[in-house]
Design brief:
The protein is α+β, with helices and mostly antiparallel strands. It is built from four helices and three strands; from the N terminus they run H-H-E-H-H-E-E. It has a three-stranded antiparallel sheet. Strand 2 and strand 3 form a beta hairpin. The longest helix has 13 residues.
Length: 102
Amino acid sequence: MQLVDQTLTYCNKQGLKKKSKTTYSNSRASQCKRILSLFPLHQNRLDTFLLRDAGIMHPAGRIRDLRNRGYQIKTCFIKAPDINGVYHRIGLYLFCDKEVKQ
């Protein structure tokens, strides 16, 4: 608690305002909706870095949630550089379709 108080005191001395609440939810359901809305904007292909930039910190978990809800999403692994130029093995998610459950 003391660290929080020190941080707030520092922010107040610097004239910095506390951030207001986010304008979106970070619930699982909200993150899944965000992923589904991003697929069409990116030719039905999303990668780990893009999803993290969109506020989804555990993309693989949310993709699993969508698969459990019947969405067909394939995963490939690629090597891609981060903002520092360091290459990482990341997930590339390909949206196929929503399965029809009978």
